[in-house]
């Protein structure tokens, strides 16, 4: 519209000079045309990049009103002296609609349209209806287009604001969920490492204190075991601070080696812990164990090791068992960890996921770990007959190398 203004102004000035250059009014008409161009250019430069108004129905700042009034007044005087400049009003329609509140803008557009109609009638040799309807139709169309564009822009701004607000809420929700998930994970990590280790130390030292005078050798064995647990707990704490990975897995050798280290550490004179890796005797693949040599994902190894640690801590603290077996079974599409003990057993139906007291994270943490991996946790037990805890975690199926059968 700004470019159209200068084009129409230049065209009208050229037409006037070609037809009326010798008339006495020519100098001041040309001068007014130049002043109008300068005023419009100044208004364009000063308002470029600024919002048209502060809101619906609000008036622009006083300097903006003064500049717009000067442009409209100069054009009106110019049209009175040279009606051929009337069509420069079309860009002025948009300037008024953009700067003024709706009602004031509509009134100004109506005033400009009346001047255009008057100018057209002054130039025509006789009255013609199209000289009245034409400018009015152009003004109505220009106003309707502008109002429609402004409403579309307002709807787009509202949609963008809603989208930005929704994205911020979503980001805040994801951050909150991430914080809660991380807190839960940290609580499980602390429970399965530091808390379980400290509990084992407490039980061993209490046992040593009870047998210190009557069975010194047994008491010293308890102290040595407690020292070993303390060393492991220290390693777990350092690893926990470093990257939260299980210290036993960090030594290398995978889950199988970590379970053996765990069993050796938890075994003592009161509890024997054995480890059985299904497929240990079938590593050449003769019995179909080839699919079991596929490395487990780090998350699955860490979760199963933590489950084994928590299960052994529960066995030592609650079951009164003398023997426990850890069995790791590797299948094509899943891995299964069984923890069986010969303790006093319990009623699995009485076990809930709700925390109770200070030590309510055990079973709940185990279920949460396998659930995060898409697995299941089952407990089978009968009072007086021990218990079996089974954790099943799905893994990507192993595809054996394809071999073609040689024709005989």
Describe this structure in words.
The chain has 408 residues and is α+β, with helices and mostly antiparallel strands. 62% of the residues lie in helices and 9% in strands. The protein has helices at residues 2-20, 26-47, 62-81, 89-99, 102-123, 130-211, 216-242, 247-250, 254-266, 298-319, 362-372; strands at 272-278, 323-330, 334-341, 376-381, 387-394. A five-stranded mixed beta sheet has the order 1-2-3-5-4. Helix 10 links the parallel strand 1 (272-278) and strand 2. Helix 3 runs parallel beside helix 5. The longest helix has 82 residues, at 130-211. It is rod-shaped, with a radius of gyration of 44 Å. The chain starts with a helix and ends in a 14-residue tail after the last strand.
Beginning-to-end CA distance, first to last residue: 89 Å
Name the beta content range. Answer: 5-15%
Number of strands: 5
Order of helices and strands: HHHHHHHHHEHEEHEE
Which range best describes the helical content: under 10%, 10-25%, 25-40%, 40-55%, 55-70% or over 70%?
55-70%
Report low-confidence residues grouped into runs of 5 or more. Answer: 280-293, 356-360, 399-408
The geometry reads as rod-shaped
SS element count, helices: 11
Q: What gyration radius follows from the Cα positions, in whole Å?
A: 44 Å
Which sheet architecture does the biggest sheet show? 5 strands, mixed
Major sheet strand order: 1-2-3-5-4
**What structural class should be given to the helix and strand makeup?**
alpha+beta
Mean pLDDT: 80
């Amino acid at each position: 519209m700004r470019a159209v203004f200068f084009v129409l102004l230049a065209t009208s000035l050229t037409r006037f000079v070609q037809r009326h250059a010798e008339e006495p009014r020519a100098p001041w008409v040309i001068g007014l045309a130049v002043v109008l161009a300068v005023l419009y250019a100044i208004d364009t430069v000063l308002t470029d990049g600024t919002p048209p108004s502060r809101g619906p129905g609000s008036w622009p700042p006083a300097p903006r009103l003064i500049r717009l009034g000067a442009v409209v007044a100069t054009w009106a005087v110019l049209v009175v002296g040279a009606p051929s400049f009337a069509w420069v009003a079309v860009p002025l329609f948009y300037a008024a609609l953009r700067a003024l509140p709706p009602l004031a803008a509509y009134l100004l557009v109506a005033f400009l349209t009346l001047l255009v109609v008057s100018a057209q009638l002054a130039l025509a040799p006789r009255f013609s209806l199209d000289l009245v309807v034409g400018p009015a139709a152009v003004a109505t169309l220009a106003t309707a287009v502008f109002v429609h564009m402004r409403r579309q822009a307002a709807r787009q701004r509202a949609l963008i604001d809603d989208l930005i607000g929704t994205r911020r809420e979503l980001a805040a929700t994801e951050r909150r969920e991430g914080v809660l998930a991380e807190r839960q994970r940290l609580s499980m990590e602390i429970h399965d490492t530091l808390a379980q280790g400290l509990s084992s130390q407490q039980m061993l030292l209490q046992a040593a204190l009870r047998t210190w005078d009557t069975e010194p050798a047994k008491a010293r064995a308890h102290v040595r075991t407690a020292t070993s647990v303390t060393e492991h707990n220290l390693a777990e704490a350092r690893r926990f601070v470093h990257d939260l990975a299980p210290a036993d897995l960090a030594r290398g050798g995978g889950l199988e080696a970590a379970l053996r280290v765990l069993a050796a550490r938890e075994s003592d004179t009161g509890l024997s812990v054995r480890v059985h890796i299904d497929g240990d005797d079938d590593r050449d693949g003769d019995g179909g164990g080839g699919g079991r040599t596929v490395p487990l994902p780090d998350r699955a190894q860490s979760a199963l090791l933590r489950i084994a640690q928590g299960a052994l801590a529960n066995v030592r603290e609650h079951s009164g068992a003398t023997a426990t077996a850890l069995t790791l079974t590797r299948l094509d599409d899943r891995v299964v960890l069984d923890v069986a003990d010969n303790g006093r057993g319990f009623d699995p139906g009485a076990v809930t996921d709700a925390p109770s007291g200070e030590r309510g994270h055990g079973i709940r943490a185990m279920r949460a770990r396998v659930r995060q991996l898409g697995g299941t946790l089952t407990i089978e037990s009968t009072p007086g007959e021990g218990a079996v805890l089974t954790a099943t975690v799905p893994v990507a199926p192993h595809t054996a190398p394809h071999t073609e059968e040689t024709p005989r």
